[in-house]
């Protein structure tokens, strides 16, 4: 009985359940192995109570161990798109000169999303079918909240959603226009033209957004002089990639890892017109851990140090006790408050603030005022004080940025913001919760804690 009790206790403490025996995962693992992925044999996929699907280690993983590596032709990256002649026909067999008319009009993430929607449409006719079937069917980012609920969440979250919506709608309309003018006789393209929808593009966009990793291929392929390539459509860089299985490892700010591009042949600066899939079978993308993981614990990688506003809006999860969180204020918001309290900034003060960059990155975090916010308030209080050198005071703010007299200037504004967030939280308390909304509420509660701490100081 004692042994049984210990087993039950251990099972409860582990808070996970292995899922490598699920048909979908068996198919994925078989497909990956067949196509050359090498994985640390200590790792298996599991469902965790707190993070959902992730990677578990059955034995201790030590710093320096390779977690996995994938041949480049088993990742979806810029070369994958360029070598897909059928996809390129969408742009090249067109009544419009797409490479000219839409030059630098979309981000690479948007093009990746369009490509993913194209692959998804083809179902089992593409080699990526098994991988695509293993991807989440929906994402827990606030973008997908109902419109009536979005109105009650914090303005910072709404602002990010609005920017995402603009990017998605603008790029979607570009691709719809390109498809509508396509002249290809290929049946797949004809059928894709009919089926391409905003919902399929949104799913693809957030698949790329939440699951891509950084991958720099500039030493392998020559992405200069690409006027005759669909790369001409891109307004930014192409340094992201979808990596099957690797994209299932969850994030922890405490994890440390390193990625490497392993080239076993003398391959460099390949012209985009000379790309062939077999060239990339000898190039592997590898990831090593710089952290230790005990047996039967979840293995993590770090996506980069990020505050929760980015984590919930870009990736769909919230990290408790995140010291990087802050509450932002716009310069217009601060200026309006000052004006209403007989502290209107003069044109000279505004010029000084702008020239020193003190109109940006105005926020309060768990340590207090940001450097720029502190500097702006120094300008408010001391700019016309003949006995003070404001420039010197701002420089000293880099060393010491705590002055209760300055805090008192904006305390009423902070209290108003605090009260506004509390009112919104009260409205949301009557709404049925879901993972997405819970993340937003957690972040807003974090904002409350930050602002309350500031007021009490």
UniProtKB/TrEMBL annotation:
Q: Which residues form the signal peptide?
A: none
**Alphabetical list of InterPro entries matching this protein:** SET_dom (IPR001214), SET_dom_sf (IPR046341), SETD3_SETD6_MTase (IPR050600), SETD4_SET (IPR044429)
Q: What is this protein called?
A: SET domain-containing protein
List, in alphabetical order, the Gene Ontology terms for molecular function in this entry: protein-lysine N-methyltransferase activity
Domain SET, residue spans? 41-304
* Stored SUPFAM superfamilies: SET domain
Q: Which PANTHER family match?
A: SET DOMAIN-CONTAINING PROTEIN 4, UNCHARACTERIZED PUTATIVE METHYLTRANSFERASE
